[in-house]
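forwarding from the other thread:

> can someone predict this with LBFN2T5F?

sure thing
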Amino acid sequence: MRIGFVKMHGLGNDFVVLDGRSEALPEITTTLAAALANRHTGIGCDQLVVLDGSDVADFRMRFFNADGSESGACGNASRAVGLLHGRPARIETLGGILTTEPSEAGISVDMGVPRFDWDAIPLGFAMDTLTMPVGWEDLVGPTAVNVGNPHVIFFTPDTDAVDLARIGPIIEHDPLFPQRINVNVATITSRSAIRLRVWERGSGITLACGTGACATAVGAMRRGLVDRRVEVTLPGGVLVIEWGTDGRITMTGPATEAFRGSFELSDYLA
Ligand SMILES: N[C@@H](CCC[C@H](N)C(=O)O)C(=O)O
């Protein structure tokens, strides 16, 4: 059975998109998602994105990391799917309902309301999430934010000086985070600008992370370090994040379709 896909990216964070609304899809197991995402033996991507019907929104969107684990949110993929849709959309995700709409600067996504309670992150036990009394080597006193998926954010003088490939997986798998965690290292460069690198849970270092940009911006705003609208510069490019007085986060940035193709399902079933 052949299955069609669209290869897309948001600032270099890349996706394989399968559309279950236009063709029957198999059950997306951890093994199948990881096999499709494999850059050596599969199509290759940071996240597999699966679309299907919804009773409460225009359609439903699911996200699977490169290791096959499922996430409740993916900011860059939401813009990519918003681009694919071509007009405003309400989309059901595990992390809540999102809305996307084309804008002059690409695609804008209403990412919803962030959560800060320790058990909503979630953490393994109760603690302050604004300045957590924990640290890993030089990275200390992070803040934690859930934007449909869990993030911990470290503000450092120089994000490029952090050996994220080494420390990222250690923090991701720390028992403090029962659902693992996305690890953000950020440098504040002005009241309206942040530089950011992200170790993504289940995918490792990516060129950009939309939810990481949202969580970092909101974390910096809660700490009083930046204003309510910031430009977040990631290795792959810039996202604009605004935290409205209604509590909702809006993310705006580009999305790109790279190519389309198809694969033979039996090649990916063990
Ligand atoms: N690339 C993403 C986030 C993808 C999910 C994340 N790795 C998780 O497991 O929560 C983005 O653009 O937000």
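The longest strand covers residues 2-10. thats all i got for now
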